[in-house]
Amino acid sequence: MSALKKHDDLAKVKSPTDKHLWLVLCVSILLQLAAYDPLINPYDEGLILVGAELVLTGNLPYLDFWTMYGPASFYLTAWFMSVFGPADLVVRITGILAKSAIVCLSYAIVVRYVPRSYALGSSSIILGMLIAVRNDAFPVFPALALALAAIILAARGLRRKPPFLLAAGICSGLVTTFRHDLGAYSAVAIGLAVLFSVLSECKILGRGAAARKFLVLIGYYAAGVCLVIVPVATLLMTTVPLSDLYESLIYMPSSVYPAVRALPFPGLYDLQQSLSGSGDLAAFAVYVPFLVVPWIFAVLILDARRDEVLATRPTTHGADDALLILIVALTCLLFTLKGLVRVSSIHMIQSIVLAVPLLVIGSTRLSRQLAARVLLLPPLIAGALLATRLAMDGVGFVASGLAGAMRPPDGLLHRCMHPELARLRCVSAEENYLLAARYVIENTGSDDLIYVGTGRHDKVFANAIAIYFMSGRLPVTKWYEVHPGVQTQARVQQQMIAEMVSKPPRLVLLDSRWDGAEEPNQSRFSSGVTLLDDYIRANFTDVARFGTIRVLAPR
User: Fold this and answer.
1) pLDDT band (50, 70, 90) for residue 8
2) DSSP calls for 210-253
3) Distance CA 106, CA 118 (A)
4) pLDDT higher than 60, residue 318
5) Helix or strand or coil: residue 451?
6) How far is residue 268's CA from residue 479's CA, in Å, rounded to a whole number?
């Protein structure tokens, strides 16, 4: 019995209710709790927390506060806050559950093709990578979990069960509400798979019947997408001016973001640094999808030449299996587009995760021909090593978390029972941010507005948005998220000044922590616009200082 036939027999006895899936889920949650990041991320995490709190107080994304993120993260977090109260823990729970869903759905895909031990190994690598990149509040994680669900449902729908395509469309629509770019890529990948499926049957069905079948299948999928997108788009377009939607969701991401946030791919110099011990080899994990996607197609082509095409092998899943691999590969390839601007593991994680199942599945289908093995083994080995290297960082976080649990002041349980601030349940912050937040709490009322900016606004990198949430105070301006290329504009600074004039902030906090940040993009250059800095200098005076944070009050 060949290895491929053996794997098919294994697949016959597996089901979506496989008890190992529950084991994967429980282990994923427990290990993430062990590796729990003890510090709040002042920018990325704060962005979601403050946006959610603004939604809770009746503010609308894009109209009352600007953001490049989809609305779902804010509304989901706001709902959790309405149930459990305003605490950072809610975004951590959302991230942990989303990452666990990613691990479980990846396992469900891989276990169809390979022995469970291989699938569990694949899940371990994926979990390690997800822990390594931290950022539990990142909307990419729930978007990726939903995209994986869409892949599985679409493959099942193409196996003569079209209603599953409706469910796949709903999942893709939900992806769009978290990350509109990933939602579009998910839809294109599944649409191409539907087209490929129908074209493969064109000779049997005939052109007319094939065209009708395509319209039926794509109609089911499009209907599912529209069930989510149409109500959300209608609500936004009837409550938010189109100019604001265009600026936040199209213009800023496509024109401003690439210019001021771009980072290059690691090169030979970075490799030399890594090999010498002064760099990080995990940074090269961004290359994994580009190694794996062409490789998996080469593997499948060689497989077809041996007359062992997945769609024609006598398995219980048939064409569903072939199309499942195709959708995963296409989605993996398209998801790399999201990470091509700001090249890093966290921004490429959605593609790196999808590459791991392809690696494991493809490794069991390598051609037996020596020449083919010589050509296909190097990408396999390189991709596996880079993915594993990134996952090892996650293992390190788990180990340090378990060690910290043995020291009560550092343990997760201690932080949950004795929070340093009421809203920082189970998490803490750097000392200066804690001091600044306490000062705001003690010197302002709950209805007072504040502004948390940077040391200078002609050149910015990021601001400590989390201080708003930590202190329980709302921002005075819709432009509270300080972003290069945005708050450095004269137009935006003039709007911020107008808002401060009409409703003066009780305190202004200026954090110079990132003022010296230099990246190889346009953010390192001053815009020359100092309107906001001049206004603050003329109308506010220093009253306290905590490290890099200056606290100012109206003169």
Assistant:
1) very low
2) HHHHHHHHHHHHHHHHHHHHHHHHHHHHHHS-HHHHHIIIIIII
3) 12
4) no
5) strand
6) 39
Provide DSSP, 308-339.
Answer: --GGGS--SSTHHHHHHHHHHHHHHHHHHHHH
| Confidence band, pLDDT 50/70/90 cuts, at residue 328 | very high
Say which residue, 2 or 70, is predicted with more confidence: 70
494 burial via Cβ count (<10 Å: 0-12, 13-18, 19+): middle
Other C-beta atoms lying within 10 Å of the C-beta of residue 172: 32
The pLDDT, as a whole number, for residue 371 is: 63
| Residue, of 275 and 310, whose pLDDT is higher | 275
Instruction: Output Rg (C-alpha) for the chain, integer angstroms.
Output: 25
DSSP E strands: which ranges in 1-104? none
Residues 284, 324, 344, CA angle at the centre, nearest 5°? 20
> Which amino acid would we find at residue 88?
D
The whole-angstrom separation of Cα 12 and Cα 273 is: 48
Query: Burial code of 296-330, b = ≥16 C-beta within 10 A, e = fewer?
Result: bbbbbebbeeeeeebbebebebebbbbbbbbbbbb
pLDDT digits (tens, 9 = 90+) for 16-32: 456 889 999 999 999 99
Mean pLDDT of all residues belonging to the chain: 90
Distance, C-alpha 396 to centroid of its chain? 21
408 band by pLDDT with thresholds 50, 70 and 90? low
Contact 133, 112 (CB under 8 A): no
Q: What angle do CA 503, 507, 510 make, to 5 degrees?
A: 115
Residues 6+ apart with CB under 8 A from 313: 4, 8
| Residues in Cβ contact with 164 at an 8 Å cutoff, skipping those fewer than 6 apart | 153, 154, 156, 157
